[in-house]
Predict the structure of Shikimate dehydrogenase (NADP(+)).
Amino acid sequence: MREPTLLCVPSVAKSTDQMAADMCLARSNGADLVEIRLDHLQSFDPQRDLRFLLKDPPLPTLVTYRPKWEGGEYEGDDEPRFEALCLAMELGADYVDVELKVADKFFASISNKKPEKCKIIVSSHNYQSTPSLEDLGNLVARIQATGADIVKIATTALDISDVARMFQIIVHCQVPIIGLVMKERGLICRLLCSKFGGYLTFGTLESGKESAPGQPSISDLLNVYNIRQIGPDTKVFGIIGKPVGHSKGPILHNAAFRSVGFNAVYVPLLVDNLADFFNVYSSPDFAGFSCTIPHKEAALKICDEVDPIAKSIGAVNTIIRRPSDGKLIGYNTDYVGAISAIEDGIKVSSHNAMKDGTGSPLAGKLFVVIGAGGAGKALAYGAKQKGAKVVIANRTQALRFYSLVFDAVYNPRMTKLLLEAEESGAAVVSGLEMFIRQAMRQFELFTGLPAPEQLMREIMTKNA
């Protein structure tokens, strides 16, 4: 059984004082160890600075002195670099990182003087792409052959499907391995590291302090993605889109999963080609998905079965992998979220509580939909089902002619359209209300459990 994945905060500070401060912050933020990036220091005196940094550090330390040719900042010869890493080991560093290209040379230079406490990470970085599964396997073997205690491979994602190859390498590796895929399309490798058994993953103290492209913050790893609770049996859900980084879905769904004790994680999935994504991520562990722009219409075609309502709308925003046979089932929760929010908005604005409890306040109303994307189709379908006369337009008219204006955009909460509508005297309904309601229905489809409505509303109000 593998040990839990460690959380490592990199310090790329320019001074040793700031590095020492970063080490203390890393501990208070919940990290397991800190990476000291010597190559980022503006001036570096090994004897003075390493003794200062490694004397009673608040956390275990990983010392890295990365050369320019491997993506770092150091531009000198290898010998002074090796001497600094050797000194770091003597002074009690828990790990040092050395590049595969010079690993044999480094091991020869220390001539078996490595302290027992210190582990040597031998690393390989590919800033262009992610190699084939066969090439990755051969790379692991080459790194192991150097005498490395821990294998580290970092590649670059050109497509989210690249990450699946790294997952396979991590799962089947017989020695401790750090497997990371850089840039936004590789983010799930960092978030799901503990599911597949990676030795450690990196989380930054704040934006701008990354030591490699695509590193999330340690705060997000711990507080949004609940990485300490992710294990081999954790189900993966996510938001498929392009772009996807702006989505509040991970904040909302992960908190909701945690509140009901559901063993799952919800991650952003930057997907270029929907069919390719589902061909690669076909495991039952990838259990359900929200689907947003630009994939809602394409999702209709890749699903094995589509709910009749989603078929009528012509767009899918929720996909469930049926546990019994692995088939993909498509649904649309947008129309329920949007129409119920609009109905309630009309009731409030007209003080019409629908005393008899039947019918819809949309019945007989003129319902103008601006735009005919996935959300627009859902709105048009829902309004028509409620008895409204639906008109689809390309652009809005003067807003004073409308009694109520709804915007499907939820971030920001009050969009330019809603602000102008309010100034014109129209009642307004924010897309945030639609987002919460459609997400509640998605949560029920994902889990089979009632959605924790109050919690979800509190989270979205706080994070809007």
